[in-house]
Design brief:
alpha/beta; 4-stranded antiparallel sheet; 14 helices; 15 strands; globular; binds glyoxylic acid; binds manganese (II) ion
Length: 408
Amino acid sequence: MQAQVWDNPLWRSLLPLGRDEQAGGYRRYSFTAADAACRDWFVQAALQRNLRTEADRNGNLWAFWDAGTESAAVAAGSHLDSVPDGGAFDGPLGVVSAFCAIDVLRERGFEPARPVAVVAFAEEEGARFGRACLGSRLSSGVIEPEAARELTDADGVTLAQAMAAAGLDSGRIGADAGLGSRFAAFVELHIEQGSVLDGLGAAVGVGESIWPHGRWRLDFAGRADHAGTTRLGDRRDPMLPFACAVLEARAAAKDTGALATMSKVAAVPGGTNGINSAVRAWLDARAPDDEHLIRLVDQVMETARAAAATHGVSFRAERESWSPLVKFDLELQDRLVTALAHAGITAPVLPTGAGHDAGVLASVLPTAMLFVRNPSGVSHSPAEYAAPQDCQAGVEALAVVLTELAGR
Ligand code: GLV
Ligand code: MN
Ligand code: MN
């Protein structure tokens, strides 16, 4: 069974795309060459299966197994973009498994009563433009197209420019009003980004909720100067309040039972023998509920502001994205657990602190998630891992779920 998974041409053709040989991780940033290669891969996978493909206005890719009916479709999938040096599974596992589940259903002679779709959402990680789940946010209307077009990457390239370079028209991006009526449900299969399933001895699980989370930009502006001649008291070093903010993020997270991370940082100009003129940093914060999340962020901002004043540095903070608590559709969740149990699959129900397109789409249609065991417990890293037999169990679970949701 192990060989079956990696010998699958879908994995074989996808694994090399956008992989950095030295780091061993993936750099599949939206609207780049690596992204284009992944998009071609998706279209080829769909064509090989005789699925009708559609690239929507927001850069999301769809492949339809039409059932010859006008009924609302059931969609499964995830995303193909990655964080910097991401693992092989976060995103792609959901897309590959959706194609594989269709193969399994066809082998079994399953005839869908409603269309079954595979989807790959654009810019889920927000690694290039900062806004997580951008493709699904645009489609579900929770971000204004004008604001999205102006998002910039680290080089100042706007989303509009990047889409144009990839041959896409950003003038057409925006809400898909028909999403809620054309789709009956969306099921996102994803590698677990923790090791709860491993602890429970289960190969697959069902998603219960997603913690509220968000991203904030912190800009510290000081004064560039000479490291060897500027007396300590004369400095306006933005690195100092930034360091206070990093430590406060950790302390506040501990206080509130939450998680806070400052990982993306730009020190400008970043010379070894000079004081920086600016530090730009991003805070990623997540908590079990809104109240704790807001408390945590307030605490970090207060400390950053006070430290900036102490060091003669100006400080500005802006919320980049906000994702409220998501409780997945309980009826759909129960239906999945029951169908899986009938198929002999025990799938524990678990919450997650990670963001997903399923969480965004939950505001417009019933959504659910399936998780696949990750014994490493690690994600957003090349160390992320799912065993071949667990990937196979995920495909089987997804096939069961699609049979339940799209069957007669
Ligand atoms: C996506 O993986 C996120 O949780 O940021
Ligand atoms: Mn991710
Ligand atoms: Mn993901």
